[in-house]
Design goal:
Order of helices and strands: EEHEEEEHEEEHHHEHEHEEEEHEEEHH
Number of helices: 10
Helix content: 25-40%
Number of strands: 18
Distance between the termini: 33 Å
Structural class: alpha+beta
Strand content: 25-35%
Radius of gyration: 26 Å
Length: about 425
């Protein structure tokens, strides 16, 4: 806050010379009841028509947002999609095309603007009442333009940015003040349902081929230990008669054969969140979905080296030592991979807690992680409570996540992490 005796004058707000524009004035039901100037509508809080245009980057699962110029009368210095008033008698589609072109220079054919829904917004910003009927449109791009090639008016915005859908959804959940957030409760739900559905359709249209690296390494021909007698394994965990002749990795998938695997969870105990990674959308199995780091255990190999290799290869976390990997439990997992088969695995689950004394004295930063090309597209830290909510729902409610089908897996996972959190918070702080 500035000192009370400071001679510095407050920065003046540049008044936009658009108050003379004529808009359709509406009643509370959205019916046109006359016309008023934009200045009148804004000053007195009359209902009027408005548009939002969300440009969806399908490959990166992100939307184009602009950081509004700080001098803007409303929402200055905040991120927003392309938006604007609908002039008198103008179709909302025409308004979308006009605002998107004037704000970013992007021009698309009528059929590329997909109407998503309408929303009634009644909110207050800086003491000014906003009453809008918003028509929401989405432009979905398989080949989005690079940011540095997009024109924008510096009087309107200071930056353009692709914002991930998860980041935007977090902004709504936490009511992040850096974003222009529509107050109407149905807006966010309908928006994310629409955008995520568009992305799922896009993923379904991508040829289901694995990455070049996977083909070159001929991972499908890797031999895995095949577990034949699951009943014996359950009754006699230390018996030796359950591992049968090895099978190829492809056969384990195509024929739904039981085999061994590892899951590796990185747990940020300071902030009570876990590291998750998004698989490449081109992956045949679980493409585009979020999960921990995973790996198949090759024939005759122990689980721990596989766990160490998985976390290093997937996200480049190579400083962990053997002692950092905490085995927490083993579980049987059966999942529909989305690639036309059911995956059946006996999974050894490991936990890496950060920060720790040796490998990572600070929580690994996302920007420093090296993602496996063609394997992992994105990483993020997810709050433990949010993960619990996702796992407690039916998998169809969260198609972007790999959700363990095993109740035993879920219970033991959260029980273990809850105990670790309790011990962590009971530890005496350093003087």
């Amino acid at each position: 806050m500035a000192d009370a005796d400071s001679d510095e004058e407050p920065k003046p707000v540049v008044k936009e010379n658009k108050d003379h524009q004529v808009l359709d004035s509406l009643d509370a039901e959205g019916n046109c009841i006359g016309t008023r100037t934009r200045g009148e509508v804004s000053e007195k809080g009359f209902w009027h028509r408005y548009v939002h245009v969300w440009v969806l980057n399908l490959p990166d699962r992100a939307v184009l947002m602009q950081l509004r110029a700080p001098e803007k009368k409303r929402f200055g210095g905040m991120f927003n999609c392309t938006s604007g008033f609908v002039m008198q008698g103008m179709a909302s589609l025409d308004a979308c095309k006009k605002h998107l072109y004037s704000e970013s220079g992007l021009k698309y054919a009528d059929h590329e603007y997909e109407f998503a829904f309408s929303c009634k917004e009644n909110s207050i910003f800086n003491g000014e009442e906003l009453r809008q009927w918003i028509d929401v449109y989405v432009v979905s791009l398989k080949y989005p333009p690079e940011l540095h090639k997009i024109f924008f008016d510096i009087k309107e915005a200071t930056e353009l940015k692709w914002i991930g859908l998860d980041e935007l959804q977090d902004a709504y959940r936490t009511q992040d003040p850096k974003f222009v957030l529509v107050a109407a409760p149905l807006y966010a739900r309908r928006l994310f349902q629409f955008l995520k559905k568009k992305h799922r359709v896009y993923l379904d249209m991508i040829p289901k081929v694995d990455s070049d690296e996977e083909r070159q390494n001929k991972k499908g021909d890797q031999l895995l230990d095949r577990i034949g007698d699951m009943k014996s394994l359950m009754e006699k965990p230390h018996g030796l008669g359950v591992v049968q002749d090895p099978c190829k990795r492809n056969d384990a998938y195509n024929d739904s054969l039981w085999h061994r695997a590892v899951h590796v969870w990185v747990f940020d105990i300071e902030h009570s969140c876990v590291l998750i990674q998004q698989r490449s959308p081109k992956k045949r199995h679980f493409g585009g979905r979020w999960n921990c780091s995973t790996g198949h255990i090759k024939m005759g190999d122990p689980a721990l080296p596989t766990a160490m290799k998985s976390i290093k290869d997937d996200v480049g976390l190579s400083e962990f030592k053997e002692d950092d990997f905490e085995f927490i439990f083993q579980a049987n997992v059966e999942l529909d991979t989305g690639g036309g088969c059911w995956l059946k695995q006996v999974v050894d689950v490991y936990l890496l807690t950060v920060p720790n004394r040796d490998a990572y004295q600070e929580v690994p930063a996302l920007k420093n992680m090296k993602l496996a090309k063609g394997e992992v597209d994105n990483v993020r830290y997810l709050q433990l409570d949010e993960l619990r909510e996702i796992w407690s729902d039916h998998p169809s409610a969260h198609p972007d996540f790999v959700i363990p089908d095993s109740e035993d897996y879920r219970f033991r996972f959260f029980y273990c992490l809850k105990r670790k959190l309790q011990k962590y918070h009971q530890m005496p702080t350093s003087p």
